[in-house]
Q: What sequence folds into this?
């Protein structure tokens, strides 16, 4: 006798609902808790193990805690804050960075014949998720299972095709609300859905996963992965629905995904506090249709959400306008930033920066995106730290903030520009970012280019140096000590010249975009 | 016994520079010149400090430029993005174009 598939193994073999709920029973048996009620923290890389942990906690009345980042720093913070907690891992997971003294248990397959436990009345207090707070301390949100079950039904209706077996392939970690609602609660709490056990990462892994799973395929992903799938020369089997969330999916990318993979793209708007709030098909719609069991209202371009599961009304930090019966998402709030789908608070990041030993003052800002740039825009930090250089500050920050938010650019300042009331002068800081020196460009017809790489002329180093010295106002005033040509400058490209001066030397750097072209050191000629 | 890479030269070959330029260019690394990337320093976390988002961008560029795809279950995946030297070696041995 077989039960419907709940998980599709890496090899494509289905694991039935009974087998997975048997794994949950076996997990509880092997934890041997007696009357104790520790919290469970599923750190498992495999969806099947994560799912078993959720079923076990629900059955045994244990609380689940899900850190907002899978990095060791975030996980350890939640362990320390929760206290009595057992970390659950999949076989082979790297747990070396977990704090000492914490209990780790590897989720294992149940012996044949283990009776499945029931997925029914929830005895558990629910699932706690965390968001990065503005104060640097993660904020806890606890959701009862009844709320998560109701959400799963909305998800199932959104994907449609009731009665047909569907398999989810997800590139999204399950410890966030988006991943939890889709890859965990949807299979557990509604019929027809299974989830592929592995979380594919590279484009080739996504293609392999979709080719491995049976039934109608549903891809749960983010604009970042969808963009890579479209740009990469990859062939996918037909996909029933692609779901996207975490950051706005533009119409053009949604259309490209739909035509390349013969699919329908649905975008979900939701929050950690409420789960799914509304959906739209971005290839054709700008307006989100709100979920029918929530009440939404608007005030000053902010949306308020009332849910039967929360006592307080939630105000979303983003700019959102009403539109017909739905809403239009205009932009993110001033404090929340988003790097490739990961969210953080600028205030929280600034706080982490100021806590670095040796940093006297500092601030994080988010520059405007470069529409022609590749990859996500990253935050930039300004720091006042007289005894440190940018690299040392960056290294210290890596210990306290998630990698996506570690600034690629740190501007070291002697003091922070402040406004009259003593707040950081954000406009002045932004100007510092733009004020990147003088520029020059060499026209395609410049005599120095004759005969150099016809069709795609590269500017000779001597010409770059000559123009850089003139742009920096230096000809004749200094002697060249060293020069290095570190990248190519093409005709018509804007070359940015920056100078930094010390007592005896001047350093001149040239860049084209972000590519460094030349670095030169000059000695001042003193009379 | 010394490993081959420990005895290898610390001078960058044209291939090392080509890959270093690719990294700086694709990832818009501010404050880093291709020549500054240490041949044997880790590219991820410590060292250059790249993260998983960068790995995805690099994998796309490598696939388009050198014609092979990277997967997280590749047996040598730890090596692929280990250091500049290792990434350049991987590209040289797996490239199809």
A:
């Amino acid at each position: 006798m077989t039960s419907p598939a709940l998980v599709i193994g890496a090899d494509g073999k289905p694991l039935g609902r009974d087998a997975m709920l048997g794994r949950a029973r076996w997990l509880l048996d092997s934890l041997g808790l007696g009357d104790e009620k520790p919290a469970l923290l599923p750190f498992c890389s495999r969806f099947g193990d994560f799912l078993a942990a959720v079923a076990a906690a629900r059955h045994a009345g244990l609380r689940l805690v899900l850190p907002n980042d899978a990095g060791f720093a975030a996980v350890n913070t939640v362990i320390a804050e929760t206290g009595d907690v057992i970390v659950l891992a999949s076989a082979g997971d790297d747990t070396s960075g977990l704090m000492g003294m914490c209990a780790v248990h590897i989720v294992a397959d149940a012996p044949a014949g283990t009776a499945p436990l029931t997925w029914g009345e929830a005895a558990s207090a629910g699932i706690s998720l965390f968001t990065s707070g503005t104060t640097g301390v993660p904020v806890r949100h606890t959701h009862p299972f009844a709320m998560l079950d109701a959400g799963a039904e909305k998800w199932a209706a959104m994907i449609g095709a009731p009665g047909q077996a569907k398999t989810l392939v997800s590139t999204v970690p399950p410890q966030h609300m988006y991943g939890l609602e889709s890859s965990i609660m949807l299979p557990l709490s509604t019929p027809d859905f299974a989830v592929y056990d592995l979380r594919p990462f590279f484009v080739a892994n996504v293609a392999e996963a979709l080719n491995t799973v049976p039934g109608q395929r549903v891809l749960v992903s983010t604009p970042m992965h969808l963009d890579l799938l479209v740009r990469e020369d990859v062939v996918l089997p037909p996909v029933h629905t692609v779901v996207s969330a975490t950051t706005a999916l533009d119409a053009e990318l949604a259309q490209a995904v739909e035509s390349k993979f013969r699919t329908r793209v649905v975008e979900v708007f939701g929050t950690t506090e409420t789960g799914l709030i509304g959906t739209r098909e971005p290839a054709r719609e700008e307006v989100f249709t709100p979920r029918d069991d929530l009440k939404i209202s608007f005030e000053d371009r902010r949306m308020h959400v009332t849910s039967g599961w929360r006592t307080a009304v939630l105000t979303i930090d983003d700019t959102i306008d009403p539109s017909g019966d739905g809403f239009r998402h205009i932009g993110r709030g001033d404090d929340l930033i988003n790097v490739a789908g990961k969210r953080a608070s600028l205030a929280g990041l600034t706080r982490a920066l100021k806590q670095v030993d040796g940093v006297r003052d500092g601030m994080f800002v988010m520059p405007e995106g470069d529409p022609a740039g590749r990859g996500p825009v990253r935050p930039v930090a300004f720091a006042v730290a007289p005894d440190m250089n940018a690299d040392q500050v960056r290294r210290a920050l890596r210990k306290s903030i998630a990698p996506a938010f570690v600034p690629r650019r740190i501007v070291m300042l002697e003091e922070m520009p402040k406004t009259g009331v003593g707040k950081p002068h954000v406009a002045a800081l932004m100007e510092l970012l733009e004020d990147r020196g003088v520029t020059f460009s060499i026209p395609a017809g410049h005599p120095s280019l004759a005969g150099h790489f016809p069709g795609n002329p590269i500017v000779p180093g001597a010409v770059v140096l000559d123009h850089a010295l003139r742009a920096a106002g230096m000809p004749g005033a200094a002697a060249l000590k060293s020069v290095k040509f570190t990248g190519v400058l093409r005709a018509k490209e804007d070359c940015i010249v920056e100078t930094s001066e010390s007592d005896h030397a001047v350093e001149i750097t040239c860049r084209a975009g972000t590519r460094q072209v030349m670095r030169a050191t000059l000695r001042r000629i003193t009379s | 016994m010394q490993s081959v890479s420990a005895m290898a030269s610390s001078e960058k070959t044209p291939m090392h520079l080509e890959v270093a330029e690719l990294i700086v260019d694709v990832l818009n690394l501010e404050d880093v010149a291709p020549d500054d990337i240490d041949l044997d320093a880790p590219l991820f976390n410590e060292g250059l400090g790249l993260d998983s988002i960068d790995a995805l961008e690099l994998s796309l560029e490598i696939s388009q430029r050198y014609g092979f795809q990277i997967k997280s279950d590749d047996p040598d995946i730890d090596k692929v993005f280990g250091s500049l030297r290792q990434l350049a070696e991987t590209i040289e041995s797996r490239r199809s174009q």
Summary: The first strand of chain A starts at residue 5 and ends at 8. Residues 171 and 221 of chain A are 5 Å apart (CA to CA).
